[in-house]
Write a structure and sequence with these properties.
This protein is an alpha+beta fold. It has helices at about 20-30, 50-60, 85-90, 100-105, 125-130, 165-175, 190-200, 235-245, 260-270, 310-315, 335-340, 370-385, 405-410, and strands at about 5, 15, 40, 65, 70-75, 105-110, 135-140, 145-150, 155-160, 180-185, 205, 215, 225-230, 250-255, 275-280, 280-285, 295-300, 320-325, 345-350, 355, 365-370, 390, 415-419. It is built from 13 helices and 23 strands. The protein has a four-stranded mixed beta sheet, covered by helices on one side. It has a four-stranded mixed beta sheet with strand order 2-14-16-15. It has a four-stranded mixed beta sheet with strand order 4-5-3-13, covered by helices on one side. The protein is elongated.
Length: about 425
């Protein structure tokens, strides 16, 4: 089992380069199916979720080549509509293959993402949006859904919640749909804007991303070949910012879009960091001790991102005072808390609310990562803990961070990865 061994106590110092965004690249990779030709995707991060997505594209018949941080995809050779179960169940975002596959091939067979039933990891908003455009579910057997869409027709889609994935699926399904599609209460996340920019670069007619209403005018012709550079990952940037703030270090975080991380910046300033921003980088110096934050709520963009909740809880666990964190986006996203308690944190969780009473220090322990952002939060806790911390199951980190151990080592952390 892969693990990370961390000797805490080093202040992070130096420069770190933020990689391309996971949440932007995943839907863009599925969108390459719409272009029956060549897509060149630059600044593509090397992540497990990217590998799984590329494997699915290969299984569908695409030719895929990874060169440095550039992926070249030829989707002219697609010859299957069957998304393999083992790959679909590896990541929730496999569901965003449905929109492009219905657009391109009129049908697709896919298992429920994560292999669960609709209850715990719902995809109801995706299904409702696709159905309203004319998609049909022909059958559901053993967790496999058979979608079909002889015709996709533009319509008004009203999402009852601004789901990121459902917004992306609806955008992707409507690129070739007859007529116009309006997606109301659309997610406003920056990654939706990146998807729109990519679709427009291929010749699709999409506007409104970043606002609550997205408009797509279906095009009746083939899209063009495309070369596109993925936006930087705002969650990775935020994670290195929190790591710096926690250790009282001073770093320069390069390749950022300041506007997209402003909710993180303002929380860290409130907690005591100094942050100065220039065009596409920022300098952060952490305080001697972070201050508690009265209440933080995770919210859809532009609110504080749910993906930053776990790293922030790590920081608040050693802050001066008591903080309250309310997780409004996902149920049951506090699995890292039990592990932080093994390190001496004082946190009470009641449903979606965590009350964090800051302690003077954490101590090293053997702890278990249970999900991607939780894994990051435990590594961060290890950076400030007294003694040795062993984070087991560290492979979760590889889903969303490119060589985090190497980047932290470069900043002065004492980390060893054991596979
Ligand atoms: C995306 C991000 C993920 C981030 C999340 C929220 C990707 C690959 N992942 O996930 O990192 O944490 O946005 O910013 O981009 N929901 C339903 N029914 C649905 C769909 C979602 O009830 O059909 C619920 C979910 O259970 C969750 C909430 O809506 O409680 C938000 O989910 P959503 O915005 O869809 O997140 P993802 O697209 O899965």
């Amino acid at each position: 089992m892969s693990k990370m061994v961390i000797h805490g106590g080093q202040k992070l110092k130096g420069e770190v380069q933020v990689e391309g965004s996971k949440n932007a690249v995943l839907p863009i990779l599925t969108a390459t199916l719409l272009n029956s030709g060549i897509s060149v995707i630059k600044n593509c991060p090397r992540l497990r979720d990217v590998d799984v997505t590329l494997k699915i594209l290969t299984k569908l018949g695409c030719k895929v080549k990874f060169e440095g941080d550039t992926v070249i995809i030829d989707s002219s050779t697609i010859n299957s509509t069957d998304i393999p179960v083992d790959l679909a169940t590896e990541m929730r975002s496999s569901i965003i293959f449905v929109g492009p596959m219905l657009s391109r091939c009129k049908k697709v067979k896919i298992s429920f993402p994560g292999g669960c039933e609709i209850g715990p990891r719902p995809i109801d908003l995706h299904i409702k949006a696709l159905r309203s455009m004319g998609a049909k579910i022909l059958d559901i057997q053993g967790g496999i859904i058979y979608f079909n869409a002889d015709r996709l027709v533009g319509t008004d889609i009203h999402l009852s919640y601004p789901s990121v994935g459902a917004t992306e699926n609806a955008m992707l399904a409507s690129v070739f749909a007859e007529g116009e599609t309006y997606i109301h209460n659309a997610a406003k996340e920056p990654e939706i804007i990146d998807l729109q920019n990519f679709l427009r670069a291929m010749g699709a007619k999409v506007t409104g991303a970043g606002t609550g209403v997205i408009h797509v005018e279906g095009v009746g012709r083939k899209l063009n070949d495309v070369e596109y550079t993925i936006m930087p990952d705002r969650i990775v940037a935020g994670t290195y910012m929190i790591a710096t703030a926690m250790t009282g270090g001073e770093t320069v975080i390069k390749n950022i879009i300041p506007e997209y991380i402003s909710s993180i910046t303002s929380i860290l300033i409130e907690a005591g960091s100094d942050i100065s921003i220039s065009r596409n980088e920022l300098k952060i110096s952490g305080p001697k001790r972070n201050k508690a934050i009265d209440i933080v709520r995770t919210l859809p963009y532009p609110g504080f991102p749910t993906d930053m909740q776990a790293p922030l809880v790590s920081l608040l666990s050693i802050a001066d005072g008591t903080s309250i964190v309310i997780e409004t986006v996902f149920e049951n996203r506090f699995k890292h808390v039990d592990e932080l308690m093994k390190m001496g944190a004082n946190i009470t969780v009641e449903g979606r609310i965590a009350v964090i009473r800051g302690v003077n220090k954490l101590h090293g322990a053997t702890i278990y990562a249970r999900d991607l952002r939780g894994a990051a939060s435990l590594v961060l806790a290890g950076l400030v803990a007294e003694g040795e911390t062993i984070v087991e199951n560290i492979y979760h980190l590889d889903r969303g961070y490119e060589r985090m151990d190497a980047k932290l080592t470069q900043l002065g952390a004492m980390i060893q990865r054991k596979d």
